[in-house]
Structures are given as C-alpha cells and as structure tokens.
Amino acid sequence: MKYVTLGKTGLKASIVSFGGIPIQRADAANTKAVVDKLEEYGINYIDTARGYTVSEEYLGAALEGRRDKFILATKSMSRDKESMAKDIETSLSNLRTGHIELYQLHNLPEKDIEKVFGPDGAYEALAEAKAAGDEETFAAKMAESNEIRNQAYAKLHHDMQHFVNEASVEQLTQIKEAIAASAARAQQAGIDAIEVHGDRLVGSLCSAILNQRTDEYGGSFENRVRYALEVVAAIKEAAPQLMVEYKLPVIMENPDGTPRGKGGLQPDEACEFAKLLEGAGIDMIQVAQANHTGNMGDTIPPMGAMPYNWTLPVAERVKALVSVPVATVGRVVSVEAGEKILEDGAADIIAYGRSLMCDPDIALKAATGEPIRECLNCNKGCVDAIQNRKYISCVLNAENGDEATIAIKPGEGD
C-alpha cells in the first residue's frame, strides 16, 4: 500500500480509503471483519459521518485495541455551535476514542456558509474542540514519545539481538521517523549525500540469525528487509534531493568455513536485497562485512585474520545485478590493489576506512606519486581503542586524533 501526506496535517494516509456508508447495512461482526481486512491491506483512512446511522458505533467497536493504526474522519450536518459541540461529543463516544483526526462540515451549501462561520456558528465549536484537543493530544503524545524513547534507549544498553526482537512497532516507527527527520535537516544544511548504515538496527532486522520476530518485521526474507526499505522510503520522501548510499552488510565465511558476522544477510539474500534497494531509489551500494557478534574484529579484521578484500566476490555479484555504482571495502591496502579491482570491473568504487586514518592524503599522494603510508591492519590504535572506549589513534600516524596539537614536519639536516 502506498501512502501520501494528508494536506498540512503531516498524517500519512493510504491512497485507498474506506467510506463508512455501507456499514449501515452491516452488523457489528461484519464491521469487525471489514476492519480486519483494512488492517491486513494497510488501508488506514476511514471516513464516516454522524448521519450514517450506526456507522460510527460499529466502527468504534471494531477499532478497539487498534485505534492508533487508523486515521479517522467523520462529519456533521450541524450548522450552529451548540449542535456541533453535541455532535462532536457523540462522535467521540460512538467511535470510542479521545480524538478524531478530521472532523468535517457535511454537505455545506452556499446559503449556510455565513451562518456556519459566523458568531455562534458550527465552526466555532470545531475550532474550540481542536484547540482543546491540540493541547491534550500534544501533552499525551509527548509523554508517549518520551516513554518510547526511554524504553528504546534502555534496550539499546543490551546486545542488538535483544533490541531487534523486543522493540515494539511504535519504537521502530519512532526511530524511522527520527532518521527521516535527520535526513531532512542534512538536506536543509546543504549536505549532498548520506549513508544508511545497514549494519546496525536495519541489518540486525534483516538477519535470519538475529531476527526472531513473529510480526510483519520477522520470519520471511520479505518481512526481514521490510524495515530497511521503509527507512529508505522515509529518507527519500523527507530529503528527495539527497544522494543516498546503502551499506549492505553480508554474512561472509571464515577461512574455516564458519559464518562471519550476524547482523546482515547471507550472500544470496544480499544479492536479492540489492535489487530491491535499487528499486527503492538507492543511489549507491557499499557491500561490506556484517557485524554484531560482540566483536568489532568481525567487521574490521586484524592482519592475517581474513584475505585481502574478502568481500569483493559478493560485491562483484551485486554489481552484475544492479545499475547503480557498487563500492567494495575491506583490506584493500594498496592503491595498486584498488586500481586492479576497478580495471577488472569488479566494483565501481574503492572504499577506505583504516587506511585513511593511517594516511588521510592517499588520493593526493596517488595523484602526485608521493609515497603512501600503508595500513598494517594491526587494529591497535583504532579498533582496539574504540572497543575499549579509548582515544583513537594510529601507530603509523602520530597526527591521527591529535591534529590540532601535533604535526609531522620534514626533518632538518641531510
């Protein structure tokens, strides 16, 4: 189901909605069955009216326990303030809710406009109800938001495996909306591109190893990648001018044949997901090692633990399936090795991590032919420091982490 923003409300309404007139010819059980189907199909906009006899009452009963999944609209034929105020109270009672997203003036003819919008007209009752509801709803939503945030951060103190399985849909939705809002601020600030870090939350939800959910975000491949695609869609809608790269985490294989990493997809699923990402509008894909085994060495292995550029075979498979640029990353230590990958057409871009800590001027030096400090992959100053919550550095680059106070200068003398 596709969704659009409803006017200036900020509400995300399904492009297919449900009108409550036929409910008059149904009973409570059939109404519940109808609402079950609406929920199943993702139709979240329901329109009814005070004039549709039992429609409000049956819908109210059917919506109990899932009111927050729907946008409710109703309407009244009342033209004066007192009558409209009574109808609003009746609608709230019938629909068994504390708020109604959209309350309309039903069948308003031109001759009644002056009365409705004049002194003691129906519009006054609607405006007063909205003002009172805004304050009450704002306070309630803020309290709910704070509680969701506190619960989410509390869970994040534990391993990601527990968080992805225990987080509520509301918590995941709030995180998704926060990501989209961050993207919008980045676009407003003039940023050109952002990366979706597909390894953390979204990667763990994609993982058949970590994700043990039984709702719409767990189980099948389609369900496990659902949240990641929703995040991408939210970013694209909030910041349509941004170039969006997706870090695609892949569960690779250790030299002894055991799986390496947990918070990602197996190679075959990763290739299928890459095609879905392109369809979702991603501008670039970086094929990387999956993590979340409790050891950063899985993602950033020390020397000798994994072959040079061990993720390249999957990157090459992905490149053959999509038309967007594909980057490879992981132990591409020398410029010559990177050039060979590009010449072979195995990837479009070489991504550097530790190497840039060792020598941040790689690109400049490659252009001028100056010697480049090559990363040892020792992990001593960088990865080990991060895992131990220490100050980051590099054993080959004395400036790293201290650029403001330390500078490497040419030696004096011969």
Any overview of this molecule?
The chain has 16 helices and 13 strands. The chain has helices at 28-41, 55-62, 81-94, 113-117, 122-156, 160-166, 169-188, 201-206, 221-224, 226-238, 267-279, 312-321, 335-344, 354-358, 362-368, 383-387, and strands at 3-5, 12-14, 18-19, 45-47, 71-76, 102-105, 193-196, 243-250, 252-253, 259-260, 284-289, 326-329, 349-351. Strand 4, helix 2 (55-62) and strand 5 (71-76) form a beta-alpha-beta unit.
Key descriptive features of the protein:
414 residues, alpha/beta, 4-stranded parallel sheet, 13 strands
Give the rounded overall mean pLDDT. Answer: 88
Q: Which of globular, elongated, flat, extended, rod-shaped describes the shape?
A: elongated
What can be said about the biggest beta sheet? 5 strands, parallel
H/E element order: EEEHEHEHEHHHHEHHHEEEHEHEHEHHH
The helix content is 40-55%
| Rg (C-alpha, Å) | 28 Å
Kindly state the number of beta strands.
13
User: Biggest sheet, strands in spatial order?
Assistant: 7-8-11-12-13
Number of H- or I-type helical stretches = 16
Our measurement of the CA-to-CA distance between the termini, rounded to an integer number of angstroms, reads: 73 Å
User: In percent, how much strand structure appears in the residues?
Assistant: 5-15%
Which blocks of ≥5 consecutive residues have pLDDT under 50? none
What class would the helix/strand composition place it in? alpha/beta
